[in-house]
Backbone:
């Protein structure tokens, strides 16, 4: 068992709001490092001590236990599709988009999505990692925020281009204990766990409204808020209407498949000349 370099007397502060933190519990990370988890006294988030083990923690895109990856992709796809159509969002950037399957799915249906991921290869969305727009309308961050070593800095990447909206998933910390399934210390990858207050602080800091909808966090830039469209979006995710819309979307043609093929082909031809 190793002990960490930061388990000395150095005073820790919250990596989101710089508040004072207090020790909550210890866990063994990557089956070898004894790590302290701290709770922030100000924003009430939970965080590991500063993560020095990340290089070891990132091996492959997906854990071999992540058997829900494809179903989750389709669920997210429908939600984004509806959001984009209701709010007329065109340019989408999926930050931390892993293997690019979501990006590809959206492109198939003519949503202009690009993907970026520092730790993964976007196998499904090769050629769509450099956006053809300056300002995204929508930024996606699915299960990404829990990986951020320094949220106060790292969240700027999500908000600095001032997208109209951000759609995020990350489980909320509500004083769960050391046995919370979301901590997954054996992976070493989950290092910051946001409380409801923390989400509120983030929204306020960047000038966004925050809505929790069907397990998603939706940040809407204040000047883009539309109570009617928001109501419609929420309604479209529920019950019979949702089932009907999913069925209709599934039956739509996917012109993006062919359009992107032609685009990539023309780029290849240009390069080979
Ligand atoms: Zn804090």
Residues:
């Amino acid at each position: 068992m190793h002990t960490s370099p930061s388990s000395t007397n150095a005073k820790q502060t919250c990596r989101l709001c710089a508040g004072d933190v207090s020790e909550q519990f210890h866990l063994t990370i990557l089956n070898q490092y004894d790590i302290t988890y701290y709770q922030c006294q100000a924003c009430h988030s939970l965080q590991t001590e500063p993560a020095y083990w990340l290089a070891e923690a990132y091996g492959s895109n997906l854990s071999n236990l992540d058997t829900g990856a494809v179903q989750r992709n389709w669920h997210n796809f429908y939600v984004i599709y509806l959001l984009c159509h209701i709010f007329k969002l065109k340019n989408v950037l999926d930050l931390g988009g892993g293997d690019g399957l979501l990006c590809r799915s959206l492109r198939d249906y003519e949503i202009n999505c690009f993907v970026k991921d520092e730790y993964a290869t976007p196998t499904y969305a090769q050629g769509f990692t450099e956006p053809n727009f300056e300002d995204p309308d929508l930024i996606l961050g699915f299960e990404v925020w829990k990986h951020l070593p320094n949220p106060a800095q790292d969240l700027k990447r999500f908000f600095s281009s001032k997208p109209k909206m951000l759609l995020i998933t990350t489980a909320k910390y509500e004083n769960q204990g050391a046995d919370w399934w979301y901590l997954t210390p054996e992976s070493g990858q989950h290092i910051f766990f946001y409380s409801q207050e923390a989400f509120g602080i983030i929204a306020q800091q960047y000038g966004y409204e925050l809505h929790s909808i069907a397990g998603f966090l939706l940040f809407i830039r204040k000047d883009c808020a539309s109570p009617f469209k928001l109501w419609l979006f929420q309604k479209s995710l529920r019950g019979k209407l949702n089932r009907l819309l999913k069925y209709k979307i599934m039956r739509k043609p996917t012109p993006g498949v062919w359009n992107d093929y032609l685009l990539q082909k023309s780029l290849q031809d240009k390069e080979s000349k």
Summary: The chain has a mean pLDDT of 92. Residues 69-87 form the longest helix (19 residues). Residues 2-57 form one domain.
